[in-house]
What we know:
The protein has 144 residues and is of the alpha/beta class. 47% of the residues lie in helices and 14% in strands. The termini are far apart.
Amino acid sequence: MDNLTASQRRKNMQSIRSKNTKPEIILRKQLWKYGLRYRIHGKDITGKPDIYIKGKKVAVFVDSDFWHGRLYQEGKAVPKTNQDYWIPKLERNIERDKKVNKILLDEGWTVIRCWESTLKKSLQECASTIMNIIENKKNELIVL
Length: 144
């Protein structure tokens, strides 16, 4: 059972951001410290990557463990209420991410997906891995 009223839940869900999330900002700051210059939220690129370098064709997505289905796939965060809505929603998000990966890879982009929990555990390691990938660019999918 949900501990919040319908209006409280609505307000909570409305406050969740899709851009400029905390994990995204901390990764951007770290990459900037390393000297990487990038653009954010590319509207003209499939999937609107959180960070991208157009000249090198590198797209970085910072994925939430819940919204992008990592915890759901591991069976750790299966919603207990309103499952008729949430389970298909999470599965659609997972499928959308796979489709975006495929399109970008087919267009010659290197796609890097960073999980929020991985960034929290080892930000510097993730940032240096991204820097190495950019320097040794290959057309591939990397999940951190």
